């Protein structure tokens, strides 16, 4: 079986250079990296991951905290993270929370116990300040706008898209607008952002035009049943994601159906021809992983886009 010394001899570089390539060290030229990888392929060299972990003091594993894996937005974030992890030679452990605070705190403790080299928090139930405190001791990045909280973040900047959406709807004389949300405005910055954008254009929201706790296709169908009971059906219903929007659309007939708008620009929105908002979740996931181990605090935003269909 080939050893690291065999790879060094065949590539013409030192053992330390080969080691830097194996550990994805950033300061290795593309030419050296290519020659070392070519030698590894010719020798069928398989790195000893246990030795790699012991010598580097790293697990080469990153935890990705998600409420669930079925929602399209989190699936896109996961996809982006996995792409970046593959490029950098890391494994990703999916840590599902279902928005249970105890689970989130458990995963923070696992990070501080060195089970992971870093943690990416896509969404959370515990206060962001609590996560930021842990980030002072280990690499953590979040996928929301942290505002004045001192933590690195990569996130979708939604305000302009939401303002454009409501401005367009108002110009088209839509004055009864329903909202389908996954969480309350106090629990979720993204839910709060769309509610505030609505208020800035239309004033206070009618509570009977808001349906909460919707996270799945089935929840969207239940939301349709809820709105159909209204004596004044909204002319537009905006959902928190495309899957919920598709479920909502399934509950109406072509003769009696409001304009339904989703969020995420996922495949289901294209199949059902629903207007949506692209929050670039895959890019958020990819860039979150790339910036996780940066030594400086960074805040990177991707501007959301309204897509009319």
UniProtKB/TrEMBL annotation:
This is HTH lacI-type domain-containing protein. Keywords: DNA-binding, Transcription, Transcription regulation. It comes from the Bacteria. The keyword DNA-binding applies. Pfam families: LacI, Peripla_BP_1. PROSITE patterns: HTH_LACI_2 (PS50932). One of its GO terms (molecular function) is transcription cis-regulatory region binding. It comes from Vagococcus fessus. Residues 2-56 form the HTH lacI-type domain. InterPro entries: HTH_LacI, Lambda_DNA-bd_dom_sf, Peripla_BP/Lac1_sug-bd_dom, Peripla_BP_I.
């Amino acid at each position: 079986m080939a050893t690291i010394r065999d790879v060094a001899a065949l590539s013409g570089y030192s053992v330390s250079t080969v080691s830097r390539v194996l550990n994805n060290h950033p300061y290795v030229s593309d030419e050296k990296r290519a020659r070392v990888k070519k030698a590894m392929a010719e020798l069928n060299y398989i790195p000893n991951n246990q030795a790699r972990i012991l010598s580097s003091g790293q697990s080469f594993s990153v935890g990705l905290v998600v409420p669930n894996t079925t929602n399209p937005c989190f699936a896109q974030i996961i996809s982006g993270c996995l792409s970046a992890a593959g490029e950098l030679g890391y494994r990703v452990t999916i840590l599902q929370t279902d928005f249970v605070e105890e689970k989130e705190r458990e995963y923070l403790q696992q990070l501080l116990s060195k089970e992971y080299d870093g943690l990416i928090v896509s969404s959370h139930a515990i206060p962001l300040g609590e996560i930021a405190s842990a980030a002072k001791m280990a690499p953590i990045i979040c996928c929301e706008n942290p505002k004045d909280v001192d933590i690195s973040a990569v996130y979708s900047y939604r305000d302009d898209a939401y303002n454009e959406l409501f401005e367009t709807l108002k110009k088209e004389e839509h004055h009864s607008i329903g909202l389908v949300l996954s969480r309350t405005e106090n629990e979720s910055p993204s839910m709060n952002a769309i509610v505030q954008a609505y208020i800035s254009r239309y004033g206070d929201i009618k509570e009977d035009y808001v349906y909460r706790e919707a996270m799945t296709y089935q929840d969207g169908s239940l939301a349709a049943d809820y709105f159909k009971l209204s004596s004044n059906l909204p002319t537009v219903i905006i959902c928190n994601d495309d899957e919920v929007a598709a479920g909502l659309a399934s509950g109406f007939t072509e003769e009696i159906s409001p304009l339904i708008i989703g969020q995420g620009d996922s495949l289901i929105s294209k199949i059902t021809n629903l207007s949506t908002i692209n929050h670039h979740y895959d890019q958020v996931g990819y860039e979150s992983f790339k910036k996780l181990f940066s030594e400086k605090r960074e805040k990177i935003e991707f501007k959301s886009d309204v897509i009319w269909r």
